[in-house]
Amino acid sequence: MRKTLLCLVAAVGLTAAGAQAQAWHTELGIQGGFVRLKPAGTNANDQTDVLFVPGFGLAQAFPSPNALFLITPIGDKVALEPSLTGGVLTQAGSATLFQAGLRLDYAIASGLYGAGGALAGHLSGTTGRLSGFEFGLQLAGGYRFHFSGPIHARVEANAQFWKGAHGVPSTDTYGLLFGLSARL
I want to staple 67 with a disulfide (CB 3.0 to 4.6 A). Which of 54, 77, 84, 172 is the partner? Predict the structure, then answer.
């Protein structure tokens, strides 16, 4: 009897939490943060740690978190989020990166969300070895909250898994990101 009552209380609590899940609004935002780039499939200590300021990477033109995003609601608990980033590196030659993503954001409870989607990127360099399109997957989970006035903020754990091609090795990125957005 006790277990049944406890299960009933837990189910009601989860239902209430789901009912309080945030409603998405159309928002435009930017994000940046700390990211660890790791060649996929190696057991070596060969990661690169990078600090990304929105729209500008303080390291190299490699896969990075998408800096500009647009939240487009398709339901109370579900939103599409297209995103873009670009970068240029001029260090021992030059390289440019353009990356686009599309993911589905799902509101779990008030402020909490999970997300998953696809990525496509184009990397080109002056050496000719780094050139072509790469594709990947992204997963994220985070917390959204009101920041100030019309501005909302989010803190997000983000992982990207890139399949290597055209001289670029397969790369995984793991990031802790901070984003700001405003309703349109």
Answer: 54
Domains of the chain (ranges; CATH) run 23-183 (2.40.160.20)
Tokens of 170: 């397969």
Q: Which of 152, 180, 183 is nearest to 32 (CA)?
A: 180
What radius of gyration do the chain's Cα atoms show?
Answer: 19
Instruction: Report whether 145 contacts 153 (CB < 8 A).
Output: yes
Q: How far is CA 46 from CA 20, 83, 97, 172, in A?
A: 43, 28, 21, 12
How far apart CA 163 and CA 133 sit, in angstroms, is 10
Q: The tokens of 29 are what?
A: 């935002």
Which residue bears the tokens 């049944």? 4
Tens-place pLDDT, residues 24-59: 999 999 988 888 878 788 888 888 777 766 544 444
**pLDDT band, very low/low/confident/very high, at 108 (cuts 50, 70, 90):** very high
pLDDT of residue 1 exceeding 60, the answer is no
Strands 68-73, 78-90: pairing is antiparallel
Work out the number of other CB atoms within 10 angstroms of the CB of residue 73. 16
Report the distance separating Cα 65 and Cα 100, nearest Å: 10
